[in-house]
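#struct-help
A.M.: can someone run this one for me? Single chain, 511 residues.
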Amino acid sequence: MDKKRLAINMAAQLLAFAVNMGISFFLAPIIEAQIANTYGFIDLANKFVLYAQVVVSALNTMASRFVTIHIHRDEKQEANEYFSSVFFGNVIMAGIFLIPALVIVIFMGSMPFLNVPENLLKDVQLLWAFVFGNFFLSIITSVYGVSTYAANRLDLTSIRTMYADILRIFFLFVTFTVWKPTLWFVGAASLLSTSYIAFWNRRFTYQLLPGIRVRREYFRWEKVWELISLGAWNSLTRLGQVLLDAVDILLAGALITDGGASMTLLSLAKMVPTSISSLMGTVVGVFNPQITIAYAEGDKGALVAVIKSCNRILIFIMSIPIGFLTAYGLDFYRLWMPGKDPCALQRLSLLAVGVLYVSMSIQVLYHVFIITKKVKWNSLVIFGSGVLSSVLSLTLLKTTDLGVISFPLSSMLVGLLRNLIFTPVYAAHCLEIRWNRFYSDILLGGFSIGAVTALGLLYRMVYPVRSWGSLLLTGVVVGPVALLANFFIILRREERDMVLGMVRSKLASHK
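D.P.: on it. Structure tokens below:
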């Protein structure tokens, strides 16, 4: 395991993530203050892109695995064929999706499940047009992102992503200042940001993988079908995840007719949990190349070691925001969204984050199913979980007065069951190791979250939060104490060295 490279990648990924999340939380209250009860339409547009990505993921999920493995086995011809086949396959899919995208944008006003107010129709149509355009550009150019993955240089992509986020906020600052704020500015800013990232990913491909190029003569239909035949199970997984995490916004807008208020409330409440999930994905993503390379080299010992290290690093990092949300969520929402009910936001937020109490410690195991090509049963279980969650939420919505709470409650209950009963056991089976090998990580993660939450609640009793300043001071005081405790209790020596290397890398970048 290359600890130095992991540390550099981790530092860059976390920095890019921090910039992106800072921008998101800065924008949401501004948009909601300027155009009330409309932020949900931005979130819903992005959710529709997620629905489309269910199909796109059939081709793209396995691309990084195949290209990386063939490059590290010095099989350049095979790597080029997969690379080019994915690119042209994505172009074909973009052309297919163009038709339904145009139909949705043009006929949006007559689609009852969207419930777009008449005075916002043109603005929402333009917003969705830009969001769909951003989606088409991202899938066509997505294969170029393989280069930094295969070369284990995720830090390069992270830095460019951070610059792209800064470019996005600059564009929004100028447009919101010079002209009347409108929703479609947000979509246009995202398209500009993606264009910047696509340019640099293509350039990184030429720099890091000089022997890999997109060529028509490398296109092979059999490679496309091979990827799709394996990736179809990942599409089923994505569909299950959409049913668990993304369809609730659409259902809230369609079934709760309150002018988009419930949809917006749920969208805002899920921002922090979604950000925490994104941070978790960022951390896991840093380890994925190392896991794939270890598997390609047939080093089972190194493979299991990387997975266990990733689990502990996840606990070390992720227990802090989850514990802080549990202890200080009410104070945060009262300050962040003064025009909304902070108690309702906190209830929804804790339900949305509830599944992470378990999945936080074992999230990397989902990549095990991909590298071992044993995705079938995981896909079926996640899809079944999504169906069960949707049925349960609709039943609760119809038979109780829970309202919008029905959606995150159902998702949490089903997600906890899956991650406690199936995921750790099947991952151990795929790796051919002891079936209960990963339950100790789950218990360790639960202990860490409980300790951070208790620390936050105790400090809150002594020093209540009354302003942004006192909330920031709480983070400055409690955060380092929690991190220090995790550093010595949760991490082993090898993970401590990795974290220290990440800190040194960050400090060196400022010299």
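A.M.: thanks! The chain is about 80% helix and 0% strand.
D.P.: also worth noting: The chain has two domains: 1-231, 270-503.
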